[in-house]
Amino acid sequence: MVIVKRSRLLILAAATCWIGWAATADADWAACQRQPTRACLLEEALRGDGAPLAGKDRLDVLILAGAIVHPEYATAADIDEAVRQAKDPSGYNYANLAIQGLVAGNRTQQAADLVASFPPRSVELHLAFTQLVRALAKAGDLDTATALLDRMAPTFEPTTRDMLAHSSLVQSVRMLAEIGRTEDAILVMTTQKNLTGLDVPEMWLSVAQAYISRGEAWRAQRVLDLAGRMLEENRRYAMGSAEEYNRWSLMSLSALRGDPEAVKTALRGLGPQPADSLSARYRTEGHQRLVISLLKARQFELALEVAKAAPDTVRDQELWLVNYENTQNGRIDDARAVMTLFSEKMHSSLRAGAVRNVAVAMVKAGKLAAAVEMAAQESNLTNRKGILFAMAQALPQ
Predict the structure, then answer these.
(1) Radius of gyration of the chain measured on its C-alpha atoms
(2) Which of 203, 213, 255, 272 has the smallest number of Cβ neighbours within 10 A?
(3) Residue 227, number of CB atoms within 10 A of its CB
(4) Which residues contact 332 (CB under 8 A, 6 or more apart)?
(5) Looking at the domain 231-346, which fold is it?
(6) Per CATH, which fold does 66-195 belong to?
(7) Helices 241-256 and 260-268 sit at what angle, rounded to 10 degrees?
(8) pTM, whole model, 2 decimals?
């Protein structure tokens, strides 16, 4: 009887402590909403049930906050946890974070080992290898990916290795261009022997986008002229799916040249949806490439119109890109307006990512209180915490 009473007392004490902690947590969050600071936003973002968030729960917050692009948000322990979570069949985001964090933390061999652990011929392997190549290029390492391919070669068919090697080249060039190392991107391309493929002009367009972003219009024009000659040559001989791919590359070229009328004319001239699967895929991918080119050329209105007309399978993703680029250019009202166009089927984390984009832009514009109010409306607790974490990172330390 005494034991039973003691057990009841212990349960009652634990419940009382939890209720007290929950009340304190709610009070702290309410106080933070009234007078937000970097410290209280971080505290709210990383608070768990009775203790700071840890493990997978913490990773989910960091990923929503943008840690895959900003691996500095994650600690070494976070990256180790991401490596463990990456083994799950649905662990792509964790694998992505693990690869980025390992490379950023000078643990390149562990990143390569993680990629090599995925089954040969699997989609997961291809996706992980792409992320590894991009992370390595960002870190200035253009050799490890090739060494990994040589190590894995016995498990591949020869065509698979060749495909991944070409993908490594393309992704390296794109990443170098994205981070502003355009001269290095050009060097990588010009030192390749027998560089061929439909995506070679696309690599040059990536370089042109980088020059446009840097405000170096005359350099961009020279690269666009080169890409244009390649695309016109391809048009003379391309047939079937290759013709479809080239058509969208030409539209991207017009977008980067600042010729919206040429883009509109080309879009009006599109025929029905291609019957074969490869051409249909190229049309979908081309649609996305065109939206990105229009955004990089700061043709926001046309980019929005093109995104709204996208196939159902990618419309939300394209609208998200428009939302993101608007926030990066201080167009906060336009970014918020785009969010009203998202479909009901849009994944909650992608929708929350759009909220994060706007909230961070608002913080940078000095509208912290309004950003906190917007974040507080997010009903999913993990998503809200991710938004708050990203907002805190936008504030001075």
Answers:
(1) 24
(2) 272
(3) 24
(4) 326, 358, 361, 362, 365
(5) 1.25.40
(6) 1.25.40
(7) 150
(8) 0.88
Q: Note whether 66-195 and 231-346 share their fold.
A: yes
> In the chain, where are the structural domains located?
28-53+350-397, 66-195, 231-346
> Could you report the per-residue pLDDT of 237-273, keeping only the tens digit for each?
878 898 999 999 999 999 999 999 999 999 999 988 8
Tokens of 139: 């870190």
Q: Are 135 and 100 in contact (CB under 8 A)?
A: yes
Distances (CA, A) of 265 to 254, 255, 269, 270: 11, 12, 6, 9
Place of tokens 């926001």: 300
CA of residue 167 relative to chain centroid, distance: 18
